[in-house]
């Protein structure tokens, strides 16, 4: 017996019993009273639960070249909630890439590539700097990550 027919029988039985249409006589024989009007559904609709899909995250690939005491580019703009897929390319010296307010600190060796992936959930400006100072020029290495809403 298919589920639609079974559900219809169960619903009808409950309706008839609850409405007093199905009673028993004194000798415990079922007595069926004729209802004045019964509306039977043609088809019992199944309830379908839909899973809510997690909103797709926007992955933003960014490459920063770390060379000659500068970050190239030194200004980056993304949207709030974007996942930043950052590639750091080291060229001439050991450098570091640090965003103190996001607890990101990555060392980049000459000729090496380092990858960092992170999400910034709040809009604002986040400074990034080189903190491994081997020259006075490295103290000037900085940039800004702008996060817009």
Structure explained in plain terms:
The protein is mostly beta strands and 149 residues long. The protein folds into 2 domains: 49 residues, no CATH class; 90 residues, Immunoglobulin-like (Sandwich). It contains 1 helix and 11 strands. Strands 4-3-6-9 form a 4-stranded mixed β-sheet, with no helix packed on it. About 9% of the residues have low confidence.
Structurally, the number of domains stands at 2
Task: Tell me the span between the first and last alpha carbons.
Answer: 56 Å
The assigned CATH architecture of the largest domain is: Sandwich
* Rg, Cα atoms, Å: 35 Å
Features of the shown structure:
mainly beta, Immunoglobulin-like, 2 domains, 3-stranded mixed beta sheet
What secondary-structure arrangement, pairings included, does this model have?
Blueprint: H1 3-19, E1 22-24, E2 30-32, E3 59-67, E4 70-72, E5 75-79, E6 83-90, E7 95-99, E8 104-108, E9 113-119, E10 124-129, E11 142-148
Parallel strand pairs: 3-6, 5-11
Antiparallel strand pairs: 1-2, 3-4, 6-9, 7-8, 10-11
């Amino acid at each position: 017996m298919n589920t639609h027919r079974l559900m219809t029988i169960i619903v009808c039985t409950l309706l008839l019993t609850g409405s007093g249409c199905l009673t028993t006589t004194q000798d415990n024989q079922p007595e069926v009273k004729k209802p004045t009007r019964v509306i039977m559904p043609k088809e019992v609709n199944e309830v379908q639960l839909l899973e809510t899909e997690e909103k797709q995250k926007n992955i933003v690939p960014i490459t920063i070249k770390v060379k000659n005491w500068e970050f190239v580019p030194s200004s980056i703009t993304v949207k709030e909630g974007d996942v930043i897929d950052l590639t750091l390319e080291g060229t001439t010296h050991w450098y570091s890439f640090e965003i103190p307010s996001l607890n990101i600190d990555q060392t980049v060796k000459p000729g090496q590539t380092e990858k960092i992936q992170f999400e910034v959930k709040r809009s604002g400006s986040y400074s990034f700097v080189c903190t491994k100072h081997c020259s006075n020029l490295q103290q000037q290495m900085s940039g800004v990550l702008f996060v817009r809403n």
